[in-house]
Amino acid sequence: VGKVDVSILSADRLLRWPIGGDSLNGVERSRAFEERVIDLCHRKLLGGFVDIDIGKEGVAVCIAITLREDDYLYGTARSHGHFLARGTGPNLLMAELADKDTYHCRHLMAAGRRLMSATGSVGGTIPLALGTAFLAREQGAVVAVFFRDGACNAGSFHECLNGGLGPQIAAQVQDIALKGSTDSTLVCSESGHRSRPCRRARDLKTPSCQTPSGSLPPNSG
Amino acid sequence: MMDFCSDPDQSEEKTMSPTSDTRQLLRQMMTIRRAEEKVIHFATDHEGLIRGHYHVYIGQEASGVGTCASIDSGDYVFTTHRNHGHVIARGGELGPVLAEIIGRTGGYNRGRGGTFHVIAPHLGILQTSGVVGGCLPLAAGAAFSIKKLGKDRVSLVFFGDGVLEEGAFYETINMAALWKLPVVFVCENNGVAHHLRRGGPCQSSSLAARHLTDITEAFSIPSMIVDGCDLEAVRSTLTAAIPEVRRGAGPIFIETRITRWPGNAGLSPILIGGDYELDWAFSPVTAPRELQDWVEHSDPIALFIRASGMTRHEVEAIDSDVRKAVEEAARFALASPAPEPEAALEHVFA
Q: Hey, is the C-beta of A121 within 8 angstroms of any chain B C-beta?
């Protein structure tokens, strides 16, 4: 129970996934949503700092459609796309962003869809995902947790990979060099090719793969 | 607390140099062994003399003495809950060490530190910690100061294999490697079967990785495995590797593999068969049955004596001196008063 077929994370499988129909709609919907968010920010209708998903919609959509309904998903500071891809209505999501009393852009949550939490703290949801994985293992479900390369330097990342013993938790590293984002070449000690988060994960016996990225236009915000 | 600003270079006590001879190395290991036996006697023969739990360094002497023999007097050392041996290997005086362990005012920290915190800044030992991995970030901080001030020093930190479960370990090795800090990470992996000490797969019960060094190599840190019961192996490995660290090439990681002393198997250390007998070193079959395998394959002192070709007479002479010194230090420690409760707030600086 709880054994994950890690092939669902293989780069080939993701690349071969038919991008069209619903998937394309998902990507387009996410892009349109974020453009609207930017527009509202510029018009001062949304406050605070907003992280947007433009440029990596495909990752969110592909991961979301490989998960079952009873699987769990944890997000990051940049999670609008994850939520939309998982089926959260754009109206509800935008309402959450716009609610000035409980403005929690980085703390979206939709437990009904097993969208457990998003967080602004780097690597903050990884331990939560590991905890949920104990439950998911009993239920035969998996937990997917999004985080970015900067989180690979947080101690919690390593503690969780060690504790999670890899296959019990499906981790997706979004190692994307975005303008204005942290570049892993600046914060990771390893030299050479940019597959360092995967190398660290592999050494903790976590099956790892790297999906190509960077072909999408860079994020401007 | 001692004066943290004192420069270790100015210390009157000089730690041993890399050219120290065989006798001196054996003397240091014997001193640790006999002092730790005295600590166990303190705990078992005198009710309440040592408050709380304590940890002894028996069986790990080669790792501490070999390591400290390969660094200079100006270098910084950080250590763990199992620090007595490191402090003595670094040149700590027995009297203040034993006095600190039993919380007396004659101790290095005037009895405020106790067994977990035998800190001796004048020897470059800036901090010890009972928190697993607690000293690693501090060691990186000291190394950062070395780099910023352009000093010709290294910051060496001892820790156990359990530390590799800690997030602080990963954050520290990443930053040390990224900023090329002069840190020497010495992991004393003290639960290794004797046939695995020189290398080979040796998985920790608490770590998913196959080798501890797989982790540090993933961070581009030069990593070595050495038999931690073989003093010469420890010393030669570190003596060869540390100059690069000193030159600014970045940190190194050494796993010293050590076989557990059977007396450490339980919750509290036990002197199986009483104090260590030199006969055991020369003829392991004369040791108590529970110790025979350890004395034959894993006791760093027995291995060192047999490899050195020293005569029974020479070893006895050294041991006799060491025993006298330990007895004298124990008398000093026991005669030293405990701190007065009214003095609890003295020496508080923050």
A: no
Strands (E), A54-206: 72-74, 115-117, 143-148, 170-174
Read off the pLDDT of residues B59-94 as tens digits, 9 standing for 90 and up.
999 999 999 999 999 999 999 999 999 999 999 999
Cross-strand bridge partners of residue B155: B76, B183
Q: What span, in angstroms and rounded, lies between the C-alpha atoms of B78 and B258?
A: 19
What is the Rg, in whole angstroms, of the alpha carbon atoms belonging to chain B?
19
CA distance B62 to A178: 50
Comparing CA positions, the residue from B128, B25, B8 lying closest to residue B75 is B8
Taking CA–CA distances from B215, the nearest residue in chain A reads: A203
Give the three-class secondary structure for A174: strand
CA distance A126 to chain B (A): 13
Who contacts A22 (Cβ-Cβ below 8 Å, separation ≥6)? A65
Q: Is B311 exposed, middle or buried (0-12, 13-18, 19+ CB in 10 A)?
A: exposed
Instruction: Tell if the CB–CB gap between B208 and A166 is shorter than 8 Å.
Output: yes
> B208 and A155 in contact by Cβ < 8 A?
no
Looking at the DSSP bridge assignments, the partners of residue B227 are B257
Does the CA dihedral B275-B278-B279-B283 come out positive or negative? positive
C-alpha span between B134 and B155 (Å, rounded): 15
Q: Distance between CA B189 and CA B226 in Å, rounded?
A: 10
CA atoms within 13 A on the CB side of B187: 25
Instruction: Give dist(CA B234, CA B256) in Å, integer.
Output: 7
Chain A partners of B171 at a C-beta cutoff of 8 Å?
A: 153-155
Tell me the pLDDT tens digit for each residue of B125-181.
999 998 999 999 999 999 999 999 999 999 999 999 999 999 999 999 999 999 999
Question: Cβ separation of A159 and B220 shorter than 8 Å?
Answer: no
Taking CA atoms, what residue in A is nearest to B251? A189
Of the candidates B177, B208, B219, the beta carbon closest to that of A205 is on: B208
DSSP designation for B2: -
pTM, to two decimals: 0.83
Gap from B339 CA to chain A (nearest CA, Å): 39
Confirm whether the ipTM is greater than 0.95.
no
Partners of B219 on chain A (C-beta within 8 Å) are: 189-190, 200
Any idea what DSSP says for residue B187?
E
Task: With CA atoms as reference, report the closest residue to A143 among A196, A72, A78, A200.
Answer: A72
How would you classify residue B133: left for phi > 0, otherwise alpha for psi between -120 and 50, otherwise beta?
A: left
Could you tell me how far CA B29 lies from the centroid of its own chain?
Answer: 11
Give CA–CA dist B249/B237, Å, rounded.
17
B193 Cβ under 8 Å from any chain A Cβ: no
